[in-house]
Design a protein that fits this description.
Length: 102
């Protein structure tokens, strides 16, 4: 059995931990940091606050269409949810405006 310790694994004897790296996937460990906005990400945070200020849905929709999620793929679902919420809000405003004006 090989007694050498690799720098890519945990050395349990000393209690030292290092990043695990994979030759096939160099991005492994890249997204270990928590998401911004209290850990839920910009997308979900904007979705929740968008019920108080719907302009946040449109802001997050712009981030979605500008492919902000390429920086962190964990943001994609929340930003897509904002895009749907912005679309529904727009449709509701158009229907309400049409009913009031006609």
């Amino acid at each position: 059995m090989d007694q050498r310790l690799s720098t890519d694994v945990v050395d349990h004897r000393n209690g030292d931990y290092t990043n695990i790296k994979d030759a096939e996937n160099p991005q492994l460990g890249m997204f270990d940091k928590p998401l911004p906005c209290f850990g839920c990400g910009i997308g979900w945070f904007s979705l929740l606050l968008g019920f108080a200020c719907p302009l946040l849905w449109y802001y997050a929709s712009i981030l979605y269409f500008r492919k902000y999620y390429h920086k962190d793929p964990r943001e994609r679902d929340g930003l897509a949810a904002n895009t749907v919420a912005a679309m529904l809000c727009t449709i509701a405003v158009i229907i309400t405006g049409a009913v009031i004006l006609l």
